[in-house]
Specification:
Number of domains: 1
Order of helices and strands: EEEHEEHEHHHEHEHEE
Structural class: alpha/beta
Helix content: 25-40%
Radius of gyration: 18 Å
CATH superfamily: P-loop containing nucleotide triphosphate hydrolases
CATH class: Alpha Beta
Number of strands: 10
Strand order of the largest sheet: 6-7-8-3-9-10
Shape: globular
Number of helices: 7
Distance between the termini: 26 Å
Length: 231
């Protein structure tokens, strides 16, 4: 990143998918930069390109044209193994469906990313306990996901995303399955983690509650940037 002052730089980014006999352009000539520590949202209606853009930033997909440079890595040039390393070491993901492992306890779900990084047991215990404290779930650590409420499950998903203290967290509609009270609890927690760890958060959302917390709001419409507002 020494050569790039931005955590993320998107230049003339375009994503085209084959559909039947033709093509669908999901993203059109996106030019954006993100600084470390931003708390930003990609907003817009369904089909506007939010999730596609989030997936490219998260190295889950590649651009058709243009470049996406994330934490010094040109996403389009990464091999599958290099993409997996970037995700494992630097990125955290939060999904609306939680994606918790049902046979694992809360503690084990949060610990899982650390096992992939081969972190020694004593350090893992300390890191998982820190994450449990951050999300207020220490008393629930031995429960299985089926025993948790929706709000608790989403807090486990957040703890799993931030346990390794990633540089960047990508959250796709993280409050979609939560009521208003739990949504605000989750968002307050993310703001605190953003400030405490200087983690960059990028959301894909059309939830007004999430938008009220954003420090920067990028509106997408039909795959293009319609508006970019610093709050």
């Amino acid at each position: 990143m020494a050569e790039n002052q931005h955590a993320i730089s998107l230049t003339h980014l375009t994503k085209i998918y084959p559909v039947g006999d033709g093509f669908f352009t999901a993203l059109k000539d996106i030019n954006l930069t993100f600084r470390k520590g931003e708390f930003t949202g990609l907003v817009g209606p369904s089909g506007s390109g939010k999730t596609t853009l989030l997936n490219i930033i998260g190295s889950l997909d590649k651009p058709s044209e243009g470049t996406a440079t994330v934490l010094g890595n040109n996403i389009g040039n990464l091999s599958s193994k290099e993409s997996a390393r970037l995700r494992n070491e630097e990125l955290g993901f939060i999904f609306q469906s939680y994606n918790l492992l049902p046979v694992y306890s809360v503690y084990e779900n949060i610990e899982f990313p650390l096992l992939l990084l081969n972190i020694e047991k004593e350090k893992r215990i300390s890191m998982v306990n820190d994450a449990l404290e951050w999300v207020g779930l220490m008393s629930q650590k031995n429960k299985r996901p089926a025993q948790l409420s929706g709000g608790e499950s989403q807090r486990v998903a957040i703890a799993r995303a931030i346990v390794k203290r990633p540089t960047l967290v990508l959250a796709d509609e993280p409050t979609a399955n939560l009521d208003a009270k739990n949504s605000h609890t989750i968002l307050d927690l993310m703001v605190k983690l953003n400030e405490k760890l200087e983690t960059t958060f990028i959301f894909a959302t059309h939830d007004e509650k999430v938008m009220s917390y954003l420090k920067r709001q990028i509106s997408l419409l039909d795959g293009s940037v319609a508006e970019d507002i610093q709050k």
